[in-house]
Amino acid sequence: MELPGVTVEHVPEIDSTNTELMRRARTGRTDAVLLVADRQTAGRGRLGRGWVSTPGASLTFSLGLPLAPADWAGLSLAVGVSLAESLHSRVQLKWPNDLWVDDRKLGGILIETAAFADGSRAAQRYAIVGVGLNLLPRPGDGMATPPAALAELQAGVEPLAVLRQVARPLLDSLRAFERSGFAAFQARFQARDLLRGREVVLGDGTRGTAHGVTGSGALLVHTAAGTQAITSSEVSVRPVT
Ligand code: BTN
Fold first, then answer.
1. pTM to 2 decimals?
2. How many angstroms separate the alpha carbon of residue 28 from the centre of ligand 1?
């Protein structure tokens, strides 16, 4: 696969594509790389969780590149918008950046950044955008609500074909975010906002109604105590079912 200015690497197995690019960044390797793995042995999710994927039935990759936006706020939402748009019109976004279909999770995004090892280029950081997508349904995984799979939405879900489908738009979106921030993505997020108008529970148990996102990507929740703008990715928000 060709991606302008980016080295594409495909490995059969690794602990985690995010972890590998973070290791490299710490030793000063901060060139633009897309690393795709057939299998991860220690895949990581947000909030310290693990990420389980199945070879051939999942797509797991990380795109690492130097970025210097004026404002980092909303980056993870912009990445979600890009992926949702390049996948299918039915893919929705659950703040901050989970990809959902029909109230089931299709995929997740883990963004991490590293400072440049040599301490120069203060405004610039190495951004590692990790993406995990379920391509085929996982039979008998015994969950009350099985995860969604891309095969429900489109024919042809071979991992490298799906990578070709999403990688170029993702790179272009990251460049657009670097130039002009979250503003260009806000309305596009709203169009796919799964939580909008729904009752949600915040991490501390507070209930409220989600009312979209601000220009910096914060989630607005109307609660009995007033409107809260949720910014921390450490706060979990779930829809009341
Ligand atoms: C989440 O929803 O919690 C985020 C999941 C992110 C998983 C991807 S798979 C590729 C990359 N490598 C990892 O270890 N995690 C991300």
1. 0.94
2. 23
